[in-house]
Amino acid sequence: MPYVKIEVTREGVTREQKQTLIKGTTDLISDTLNKDPHLTHIVIQEIELDDWGYAGEQVSVLREKGITANKK
Amino acid sequence: MPYVKIEVTREGVTREQKQTLIKGTTDLISDTLNKDPHLTHIVIQEIELDDWGYAGEQVSVLREKGITANKK
Amino acid sequence: MPYVKIEVTREGVTREQKQTLIKGTTDLISDTLNKDPHLTHIVIQEIELDDWGYAGEQVSVLREKGITANKK
Amino acid sequence: MPYVKIEVTREGVTREQKQTLIKGTTDLISDTLNKDPHLTHIVIQEIELDDWGYAGEQVSVLREKGITANKK
Amino acid sequence: MPYVKIEVTREGVTREQKQTLIKGTTDLISDTLNKDPHLTHIVIQEIELDDWGYAGEQVSVLREKGITANKK
Amino acid sequence: MPYVKIEVTREGVTREQKQTLIKGTTDLISDTLNKDPHLTHIVIQEIELDDWGYAGEQVSVLREKGITANKK
């Protein structure tokens, strides 16, 4: 009976990327814990940049300064 | 001091249905646990169909295939 | 596809009361939104009294002062 | 590794107020628990008035009756 | 800035399985959304069987009846 | 009607520190948004080190390597 919530900043996540996250997480849980996918629910929640704070700053401010969350 | 979060797919839930969920959940908790309703908060969160995954598929895709969540 | 989280203070909630909350919430959602109960998951989370704050005070402190959450 | 979710009703919270909440919560956790702010994430979620229930009533209905959440 | 919460029933999930879930989810998000893993936090929450309800029944009751969540 | 959830790793947070977090968060919200503290609920949830993942690793593993979350 797994339930997964994925929270990410709203920065152009596509429908295809969401499907990849949903399929990938469901498969990971199914493979690791042997859970029936029909009992696995995944919810993605996109958060506005003004509403996410990191290190005491709004992400919208960090982005204005050119600071991204991209992989190095 | 109860707090309840109800997450449902965004598929035309009306204001009246939300009020029914809020009143019903508050009464259920009050009747079962003897809690003062003035300490009970209920939050409903509607989730876009692209953002909810079930059995590894986006609900938006399931709906396109004619698969609903309706009671049988 | 509903998911419900019920958070209450840990103050002797019995197994039977939990079952009543689970059955009642599932029925309420099924009756109100016509949702298949096989797609409805309910999670109850009990919170220690030191870990719940109300009006700026720990509930454990409120209880020591004789302030309950009981219905009036 | 703290994560904080702040849920408030959507009633005109400004960008500056959000920044104040983010900075204040991050500092509070850093000062109290000695946590590195670079490991602290804060998420603010605004909830529509129809979607928040208090004492068994939608907040939108409470507001129509002139009942606010303002400090006395 | 992703944050992920994974809720599963407490049924003998091992430390190694948790590590697999954490590594797998972080990699999935990094690969799909190009996110820096140093900004990705995963929280696993195990839920007692009396506290998870499915189809209106406590999972502890379902297990007593021999109904599992195993993949078919 | 604010509700706040604070998730931190379980690493010896004291009752007094929890009270400081509860009082501080409630005051911050009251001062910033003019909210009545009697409508503000704060929930602290401590997470076991095996259950929190950061940068793809369990925090328990990071701590064994001597990597802390302390402020620099």
Give your account of this protein's structure.
Six copies of one chain form a homohexamer. The relative contact order of chain A is 0.22. Chain A is 35% helix and 26% strand. The first copy, chain A, is α+β, with helices and mostly antiparallel strands and 72 residues long. Chain A has a single domain (3-64), classed as Macrophage Migration Inhibitory Factor (2-Layer Sandwich), CATH 3.30.429.10. Chain A has a two-stranded parallel ribbon. In chain A, strands 3-4 form a two-stranded antiparallel ribbon. The radius of gyration of chain A is 15 Å and the shape is elongated. At the A-E interface, strand 1 and helix 1 of A face strand 1 and helix 1 of E. Strand 3 of chain A pairs antiparallel with strand 2 of chain D, so a sheet runs across the interface.
Brief account:
Six copies of one chain form a homohexamer. Chain A is built from two helices and four strands.
- CATH domain topology of chain A: Macrophage Migration Inhibitory Factor
Broad shape of chain A: elongated
Query: In angstroms, what is the radius of gyration of chain A?
Result: 15 Å
Parts with pLDDT < 50 across at least 5 consecutive residues of chain A: none
The CATH H-level superfamily of chain A is Macrophage Migration Inhibitory Factor
Q: Give the class-level CATH name of chain A.
A: Alpha Beta
- Strand order in the sheet with the most strands of chain A: 1-2
Largest sheet report of chain A: 2 strands, parallel
Order of helices and strands of chain A: EHEEEH
Biggest chain pair contact, residues each?
Answer: A-E, 33 and 33 residues
GO molecular function (chains A, B, C, D, E, F): isomerase activity
Keywords (chains A, B, C, D, E, F): Isomerase
InterPro entries (chains A, B, C, D, E, F): 4-OT, 4-OT-like_dom, Tautomerase/MIF_sf
Organism (chains A, B, C, D, E, F): Pedobacter soli
